[in-house]
Write a structure and sequence with these properties.
Length: 595
């Protein structure tokens, strides 16, 4: 079976499983649609959380970033890993103890304010739509590579798939679909990594191959990579061109942004108790670690293989007669452009500009010793998908990786769609504007909202191609979450004096400042030398998070404290006791079992 047939096989089988699960677990109530009935087993929820967390940015883009940024790309690895630990230990159990559907639900009741709820909805929508733009770009990359079609057409196909199982199954369908998607994506990520580690270092464990000697050579693989890239005029792989303060800020924005991400937090509302939330968080960390400890090795192997196959290759214009042209070049002692490059070229995610007219693809850095300008421009988001082809792995491995890339992007996109849908149907409609709405009507509105969000997400995915690579687009969402949602969630749990005025001021300050900074430097003509303290848009959310915290605390101290029952509620969240005595159970939801 050739590569294309294997790809159709794996993608077809996995999509059939996802759709079958959606039909089997079709949501029959708002409780099923929003929080999967609060009865998901912690281990199952841990696996679903890992799939929700490991998005297209983790699966497709992170290794590509590490491949081309080297040490500088590690900020994403450190920030996302540390952020999940922060969320799991600091916030998730207490939020589950509160027993609500959504983050705006928590904000509205904790801060006893409809206006605070609406502002939280706006923040959640900004974060979610920014995040989902990166996921839909990942879907477009995967589909375009798989079908050999333009990137834009790939996004449209992805929209149709997400529409089906997210709108039909709700959180219940998404949860069990994400379990299947985790299995697919983790196999798809680790299997080619094992193959590449064996080929490059002779070690079958990628994490050990990363620090081992190159196969048959008395030189460390990383040292060989350093030598290779510096000879071509690039910075050393183990160095970074970013300032230390920018690295620190980006890592901080990713960490604290994680703790404010609505689509991750909502996963902890699906388990029965706060204790189960802690257990599922632990399982999720185990499942996440498998991919995150593999990513640095995948990135390093990808960079070596890319240089080896593309640099100084003779370009072939006639793709239809590739085999004959390649044979002719080889007979003349030349090196033909690799087949994988020609396969990916129609997607528009690779480009070659023959600046010196010699027909040779020179891949060079800014400090190239031979003075030749770089002629090859790869999109970093393609490398995990293209890795098996670059390394000439078997066709079934290539097909598996495509299925895994789609699973990663679709799983997170579905989780984000739930946040958007619940924000509109539950927080805005039922809890704000139409309090008399019954469950049946709310469920209908939720599905309509999810459908509209799918269309909007697809359009944003097309727009995301202008913003940068997937992980960079996603980093903007983390910055927005860090500055707007994390401060009021953190203070809402750990400081009972925090009131509605402080929460509203904190959210507005964090959202407006971070969003304005990103827009100015991405679309308003701002340049890197104008960065505040040298901090890029990816990291600025960390700085404005402290501004948001300071403003929120300051406003809270000069205004009236929250009612006594709210202060008692905050104490009860941290030290569960007589929950119903504080009036928490509402909206027909059962109070959470105390531990």
């Amino acid at each position: 079976m050739d590569q294309q047939l294997w790809t159709y096989f794996f993608v077809g089988i996995t999509f059939a499983i996802y759709i079958g699960i959606a039909i089997w677990s079709r949501a029959g109530s708002t409780d099923d649609f929003y929080v999967a009935g609060h009865d998901v087993h912690p281990t199952v929820n841990g696996m679903a959380t890992a799939a929700d967390w490991m998005s297209a940015a983790s699966f497709l883009s992170m290794a590509g970033l590490i491949a081309f940024l080297g040490y500088g790309g590690s900020v994403y690895l450190m920030g996302w890993t540390g952020g999940y630990v922060l969320l799991a230990l600091l916030l998730a159990p207490f939020l589950r103890e509160f027993g609500k559907f959504t983050v705006p639900d928590f904000v509205g009741d904790r801060y006893y304010s409809t206006f605070a709820r609406v502002i939280a909805v706006i923040c959640a929508l900004f974060v979610s739509f920014t995040y989902i733009a990166g996921q839909m770009k990942g879907v477009g990359v995967a589909f375009s590579g798989f079908l050999g079609i333009p990137f834009e057409a790939g996004i449209i196909i992805g929209m149709v798939i997400v529409f089906f199982y997210a709108v039909l199954g709700g959180m219940k369908g998404i949860t069990y679909t994400q379990v299947a998607q985790y299995v697919v994506l983790i196999f798809a990520y680790t299997v080619p990594a094992i193959f590449m580690s064996l080929i490059i270092t002779g070690n079958p464990i990628p994490q050990l191959g990363f620090i081992a000697n190159a196969a048959g050579e008395n030189i460390a693989m990383l040292e060989k990579l350093n030598n290779t890239v510096t000879e071509l005029g690039f910075m050393e792989y183990t160095e970074t061109g970013k300032s230390m303060i920018d690295i620190f800020a980006i890592t901080g924005a990713l960490m604290f942004g994680t703790a404010g991400l609505p689509h991750v937090i909502i996963r902890f509302f699906t388990v029965p108790t706060a204790k189960a939330a802690r257990v599922s968080a632990g399982w999720a960390l185990v499942f996440i670690a498998i991919l995150y400890t593999t990513a640095p090795a995948v990135g390093a192997f990808a960079r070596l293989n890319f240089i080896d196959t593309v640099n100084d290759a003779t370009y072939i214009t006639d793709a239809e007669n590739y085999e004959a042209a390649a044979a002719s070049i080889l007979a003349d002692g030349g090196k033909p452009v690799p087949k994988w490059y020609k396969d990916w070229e129609p997607t528009g995610l690779l480009s070659f500009e023959d600046k010196n007219g010699d027909g040779i693809m020179q891949y060079r850095g800014p400090d190239s010793a031979d003075g030749i300008a770089n002629e090859v421009s790869p999109n970093r988001d393609i490398f995990v998908l293209a890795n098996p082809q670059i390394a000439q792995l078997p066709g079934w491995v290539i097909g598996l990786v495509v299925a895994g890339g789609l699973a990663a992007a679709l799983s997170t996109a579905a989780g984000l769609l739930m946040v958007i849908s619940s924000a509109v149907s539950h927080d805005l409609c039922r809890r704000t504007f139409y309090p008399e709405m019954d469950d049946k009507t709310e469920l209908r509105v939720a599905r309509i909202s999810a459908a509209g969000a799918v269309v909007a997400a697809g359009l944003l995915g097309l727009f995301a191609s202008q913003l940068g690579f997937v992980a960079q687009v996603v980093a903007f969402a983390f910055g927005l979450a860090a500055a707007s949602l994390f401060p009021i969630i953190f203070l809402g749990i750990f400081w009972k004096r925090m009131n509605k005025e402080g929460a509203i001021a904190a959210m507005l300050i964090g959202l407006v400042t971070t969003f304005s900074y990103i827009v100015y430097f991405k679309f308003g003509g701002g340049t890197a030398d104008q960065y505040f303290l040298g901090i890029s848009p990816e990291g600025i959310g960390f700085v404005f998070m402290f501004l948001s915290l300071a403003v929120g605390i300051g406003v809270a101290l000069v205004t009236a404290p929250p009612p006594q029952d709210i202060q008692d509620l905050v104490e009860d969240i941290r030290m569960p006791g007589t929950r119903q005595s504080h009036g928490v159970a509402d909206q027909g939801m059962a109070p959470v079992a105390a531990e």
